[in-house]
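User: Fold this; tokens only.

Assistant: Input:
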Amino acid sequence: MPCPAVSQERGCRSKKRRSENPAANYANDANGAQTKFFDAPRSRPWRNSWLDFWHIMLLNEGGFSMTYRFLVSMCCLAAVIAIVWLPGSSLGQAPAKTWTPPHTPDGQPEIQGTWSFATITPLERPADLAGKEFFTEKEAAEYEKDVVLRNNKDRRDGSAEADVGRAYNDFWWDSGTKVVKTRRTSLVIDPPDGRIPPLTPAARERQAERAAQNRGHEFDGPENRPLPERCLVMQGSGPPILPTAYNNNTQIVQGPGYVAILVEMGHETRVIPLDDRPHLPKDVRLWKGDSRGHWEGDTLVVETTNFTNKSAFRGTSENMRLIERFRRMDANTLLYQFTVEDPATFAKPWTVEIPVPKSEGRIFEYACHEGNYGMFGALAGARAEEKKKSSK
């Protein structure tokens, strides 16, 4: 029985199963071409949906085998395409480019450039963050906002003493506004608690003796004042290098057999030989120690010894052994680490890690002596106090 005209476009909906006459299994389409059709129950009108399509396939087993194989192949292809283009799928992404550290013309891994040590990540982990090694992204943002507000020197809240303590307004400070890119809660990474190990009994006794010797003589002369106040060895200028209140840029320059490190704070330059020359004799002591460097793969390792007790770093003895490591993490980040080894001062060695971003800023000369009115004022004030007491 021929299909009605309307059914010739949608497929014939006869109540009968496939006709035993092969010719009856075909109908003319709108263009007069013969098209094979399959019967479906009259109660389910053809909706050209996937459900009806599979229903028809199952009812017409004669054409099912070939069609089934075709559909399985198409579904597999669609699944592969979906996986390849799935967001976040490694298959749908171009292979990650491996960053290759550049090298200088003489073959050294290149760590040259100007780098900023400015960060608000504290050296030691605060007590309220005990047990927490890393910030989440949200926690880091909240911490940064809180610290920047707390450190704002333009605030006028608090007592008169607090206001005087913020005498330098915020324009002059440049200690950073961000935590380190690893989001660690402290710069100290070892011990794992983020705290500097306790002093040994001998170190505590040594510090007490030093303080007692200067007590009552703090303003006798410039020799009694701290080295940074005398513009001799500045805070954070190293070794080791640490973030400070301002002038946090450091420039590294490489040449055949040498690396030079210029620290903006105090415009101090350390020239480090990379050959196998030994350290200076033990009886030769320097305020900034004696540095020797060598390469371990892409990492510059610098060992500094021969310190003097006049420039003790956090109370260290003159026998401190300092190991610094400089390595490029990527094109815009230098990973700086240092380890302090001094059994005479600390219960065990400790290590600091600072991911240092590249700085687009310039290195400025730090003119300390020329503007050191504080030294003159402190000593002049002490003389005035002495004169006042003697006149009574």
